[in-house]
């Protein structure tokens, strides 16, 4: 014994410090001086650690503090947590791989002899799988904190996590180094942990945070992007997964119900080897990929409409309707869905608002205040010239002019006419006339220039772009028979706009028929945005690239979409796994871009074919039209024509009045004679 130091009892914190200093390279004598222990004590605990990996005293159990540091288990719900933490046989292999990956990460980490803090919910197993491989990484303690996802909007999760984070912070502050391991498959739990760990100051930069999860990659990207805990702290994410388990089809045939719904599912012109039509589309390619992974063949059952497709899923004649369907609460009573894989943006398509004949086309070139100013100045000029004529000016030889004659002179100069009855004879009058003629020239030039622009580029009414604007303009909204669920959804929504939309909805017309009706009447057609845009581009686009139909900007149902499947389908888990894998690999986005490129290519080919088939006389007419310059139509010239008709009508009325008055005058003269 080193007599330079008095004998003192060591606790678990002292032993941890001794081993940690020795691991960093400090000599036993320096450790003894630093900790106030004897050299013999230092050697004893270093030897115990090297041989047994244990810092507990042999004669008796550690004190309450040491036991708390060794195993701290906070059960926030009940005492049966150990049973519920055991993984199922289906998930054991996946989590064993995750535990092995976690162990490899901790092996490579510097200062690996630390305490571990587990934070988990009931969605993942922890102790049975992870403790076997991670005990050796936590010689100084393993804390397990379990919370349960619950409460409205995650309030229960937040409160229980706040309690667990507070206790975990105490453990972190009493340890030399800590690694925090979070295990969960629930995005709500992970979001709540990210917020609670910041509020509770659980993490510091030296604290390693490892997240083990099986969340889809898209959700995981959102978590990493939106929360400071995951994006800016010392964090690593281990994404575990596994091959599909459970029922496999072993080459069996799976009945599916689908029909043409471009770009999701449609037939090609070429035929397959067996003589059947080839099918493509974003959703068909996804189904084909899933079929190869799960080893089944696809049999498409013939259907008349989408309502029949869903009915066959309900009756279990069909296992899947593998085409985009919005996830609606009302539909869950009849069937369930696969994992959502895209957004269901259903919108409305209607006719572009056009011009209606109106005389205002002559009024548009100048603003209302300009017109008022011109009228006021013209009236003032008439008064001034009349007064000056009465004073002896504007006459050669001197003679009095009537007010009407003065008005005609002023208005005539405003329309670029000359003074022919009144000429100024004094310098002030000449100055007045010069400035009036300049004013008339500027106003006339500006009006004619803006009138040309207004005639060639008329002012079109604004397009309805919101649901509220659409239901005020149209008198009917058409949708295919499968839209009965949407009509029920809108009617039960309790929103005034949606309820009015439900009253206007008419079930029955097919897609192209509904769009054609929208071009002929004040109606709208509802369908998926991608479907509407593609069919408008293919069937309702002119040669110049314009279309008389457009898609409303606001979506009627901005939600998630999935495939309908029967209730309690045993293959749902494997189906979801394959769909998620395809999404994470970027295949669905690739197929979507391929479909759009195919549509563009077909549109270009169709336009070239139409140009080749164009009659010769139409080509000559197009060549003689001045290089594509658009001629003015009746819509452009409606203002001048209406003004001319008004003038003819007034002239005819004046002529009739003159004829009547002259005939009465002749009769009166004859009577006097």
Describe the protein.
The protein is of the alpha/beta class and 673 residues long. It folds into five domains: 12-60, Arc Repressor Mutant, subunit A; 66-239, 3-Layer(aba) Sandwich (Rossmann fold); 252-341, Periplasmic binding protein-like II (D-Maltodextrin-Binding Protein, domain 2, 3-Layer(aba) Sandwich), CATH 3.40.190; 359-456; 467-562, D-Maltodextrin-Binding Protein, domain 2 (3-Layer(aba) Sandwich). 50% of the residues lie in helices and 14% in strands. It is built from 25 helices and 19 strands. Strands 11, 13, 14, 15, 16, 17 and 18 form a seven-stranded mixed β-sheet that branches. It has a six-stranded parallel β-sheet with strand order 1-3-2-4-5-6, with helices on both faces. Helix 1 (12-23) runs antiparallel to helix 2. It is elongated, with a radius of gyration of 43 Å. It starts with 11 loop residues before the first helix and ends with a helix. Residues 1-7, 59-90 and 620-628 have low confidence and may be disordered.
